[in-house]
Amino acid sequence: MSGAEWQLVGFSLRMALASLLLILPIGLALAWWLARKDWRGKALVETLVSLPLVLPPVVTGLVLLQLFGRRGPVGSWLHNTFNCDVVFTWRAVVIALAAMSLPLFVRAARTAFEEVDVKFEQLARTLGAGEWRVCFTITLPLAKRGVLAGTLLAFARALGEFGATIMVAGNIPGRTTTLPVAIYQAVENGEDTHAWTLAGVSAVIAFAAVFISEKLQRWRK
Amino acid sequence: MAQVKDAILTANFRKQFPGGPEIVADDLRIGGGITVLFGTSGSGKTTFLRCLAGLERPETGTIFFGQENWFDAGKNYFRAPRKRGVGFVPQDYALFPHLTVAGNVSYGLNEMPAAKRAVCVTETLHWLGLEGLENRLPRELSGGQQQRVALARAVVRRPQLLLLDEPLAALDTPTRQRLRGKIQQLLRQLGIPTILVTHDRFEALALGDRMVVVADGHNQQSGPVTEVFNRPDNLAVAHIAGTETVLPARVLKVADDIVTVAVGDVKLVAMATDFPPEATEAHVCIRAEDVMLVADALPTASARNRFSATVVAVERDGPLLRVELDCGFPLKALLTPQAAAEMKLQPRAAVGVLIKAPHIHLIPR
Fold it and tell me: pTM surpassing 0.90?
């Protein structure tokens, strides 16, 4: 593999990891909220969170483009307050990857939380523990395998994201181009060897992530 | 009904589960010592306990612990379980599976300085005979050890009230019998007011100072354990307390502290304590262990509560024999196999029956 190829792989991995950092706090809170609480509008939020799973990724990308564009509600606020532009930068890559892999993470983490018997949480409360302590010392440790499996799935999904990324981040070599976008570009340019090399790298990483994730979800005791 | 004079806990509430039975605490008063909540499975005992622990919230009513308000539906007040200072041991113990024995026991002591916490944990484990198991995980323990770890976790915080749900039910019979006495001794040493849920008569008799019978989701009779077993207030309690013989009777005479009743053609005399003189009908309750058998058949009307009977059936009941008799009415008796052999007890044999008047309990109708 050439130096440029290594660089591309490194960039994609960094973007996927950054999107995980964005997903983890939001996704954990959302998953816990969906698993443990009943509230009005819960069904709506459930549907919205899962929507990117079934929507064409380019549609998700289009929505993000509208939101984060300089004239969009979030984009204009970020531009005016922090002088920070999102669209067609690495930030857009992170947001696109996060939006696309959040549903997988929330679904896995929610199931993991739901599998924790509430009797342990109730008992912790009788021992004087407040809700934060219950969550961090009982619920999360007991759900950690499922949460970890969900994290790996989300990571694998982020590495393979194409449609939403190209809509909000475009294809700027060295700045926003990720592995899947580069593969598409390589095929367009007729650079078959290059395309297959990158495809191989993608496959290896995806295989490892899904394999470990499956192991974690099945390994019960 | 013998009420608790210095109740430390008073509860009046209703709890309705969707599609389930209604659980009603009707002037439930709990004093110090060990109070047994006694009832069949499904009678609502566990729900009582969970409401007191704050794990369920009743729809209406109040719960007071001493001067502390724990629940007042009228004021929309509900004290969170973590602020009630109770030690709760559920039937399946709910030991945290990811924490060691030491981790489980010290969980409720997180506000204590680490050094002091370690001392507390060590002392409690030693007291319960669990030393050396500090670093084991719950799944590496025997049932009896798990039970004691759950108890340690609850008592190490010095709770103001201890709630035990069927503490011995999850254990095998030999372990249960061995731990029954041990637990009683430990609870006595602790001196923490304790409410213990059980459906086991032997457990209630062995562990309880007082007892509250729970039936159909309502608390019924309460009082000292033997009194409730021997003098049930109503038929439901008599049934749950396992009174073997319960028969309808006519009241013939109330005089000189003695009540004379007739069961069919047979006259029985009982003590008139608390018996309303105006009652004309009653239920006669006789515990099988209070029925004495003598070898020679006696003439029917010779003395008080002495009459002849015919043996209908003899069957084993644990180490004892359960004898079904016909003495004008069906009567059950318990005796040892030796006594039965000496009397040559067998179906159709004639025997004499003797029941002391204080052992005949009447429920006025």
Answer: no
